[in-house]
Task: structure prediction
Amino acid sequence: MDRVRRFLARQPQVAASDIADLEHLRRSDCGSALYATVVLASVLDSFYVWSASETAHLVVPLDLAQEVRSVGLSAGQLQRATDDLGAKPSGHLADDARVQQLYDMRFKLLADRTRALVKRVSAFRAYFDGVARMQCDLEALRWVAQHGDPNRSEFEAQVADELRTADLDAARDAMRTAADQMMRWGRQQ
Result:
């Protein structure tokens, strides 16, 4: 939750009361959708793919604070409506067909609204996945650009090492030949 607070504190249009409302909502059933949105937005905000010259034109920008606020508003309204509806009527109202029918209708509408909110958060997650993939690709692209191609001095050093190895191999072979000749000469004496 500290990450969420830090993200929201950087957004000038978010008030302290918004943060308190978010903490209250996080504990509710609808709050999990909001919490997921806030966490995704805070991670997205840390990506540099937004401003990188290689990718800035490819990323479809979103106002992350507005997305969080909008999901929070929707989740809050849904939670209030769910709380207002309450539990299924009992007692003598349990026998009233009209009351039960109205409750079932409202309950189904709220369930549809919950599904719509979940779809919205899922779409935001898919957006996050795309941007995260671009972030990884950008990191790989930058690594390859920096480390992928050896520079000329590396090739020159390699050629020098290979030439020196050939010289040393030739010197070793010459020494063996000379040593063999000395051994033969010593045996002949």
Observations:
- The radius of gyration is 35 Å.
- The chain has a mean pLDDT of 84.
- The chain has six helices and no strands.
- The longest helix spans residues 97-148.
